[in-house]
Amino acid sequence: MANRLTQIATRTGDDGSTGLGDGSRVPKDHLRVQAMGDVDELNSSLGVLLAEPLPADVRELLVVVQHELFNLGGELSIPGYQLLKPEALLTLDNALEQHNATLPRLAEFILPAGTRSAALAHVSRSIARRAERAVVALGAQEKVNDAPRQYLNRLSDLMFVLARVLNRANLDGLGGDDVYWKSERLSRQQD
């Protein structure tokens, strides 16, 4: 493969524009660039999560997800191009099914808390939701393939499930279960 990045500081963006993968230039606040940035931030947040102690299967899955997010970002950077394959969504669906099967049903809403790794998974979940909203906004203005939106939607669900898995894995010794929301309304109903 050819070396694609020969120079990082090109100064071509000093005018407030950035280059897309097809060679065109758009303003840095363009909806496409915002979506790409949110996907990049999501990938970075997964990198932080991967710096934590994780079960081997979760680590392996997140590394695959990082590569797919890079594909997704590449697809967004080249209007009309497809890089994200249907198998990527299937991988998330299978992981959701596998990990959900190990968890007890939720009786109440949970807080984005618990172990450090679970909390970081929740941060990634919320960034995935933002990235999904950015892709939806872009899709309202320009043609965007369905796969990026679907992948981000499914990934946010998976990150919620993985947060619960990581709380139970308790690899830092500070968790062990979901942290349930204490609803004042529900407390009053139970009294």
TrEMBL record:
Its EC number is 2.5.1.-. It is an enzyme of class 2 (transferase). Residues 1-26 are annotated as: Disordered. SUPFAM superfamilies: Cobalamin adenosyltransferase-like (SSF89028). Residues 8-165 form the Cobalamin adenosyltransferase-like domain. Keywords: ATP-binding, Cobalamin biosynthesis, Nucleotide-binding, Transferase. The keyword NADP does not apply. Signal peptide: none annotated. GO terms for molecular function: corrinoid adenosyltransferase activity. InterPro entries: CblAdoTrfase-like, CblAdoTrfase-like_sf, PduO-typ. Pfam families: Cob_adeno_trans (PF01923). It catalyses: 2 cob(II)alamin + AH2 + 2 ATP = 2 adenosylcob(III)alamin + 2 triphosphate + A + 2 H(+). Belongs to the Cob(I)alamin adenosyltransferase family. This is Cobalamin adenosyltransferase.
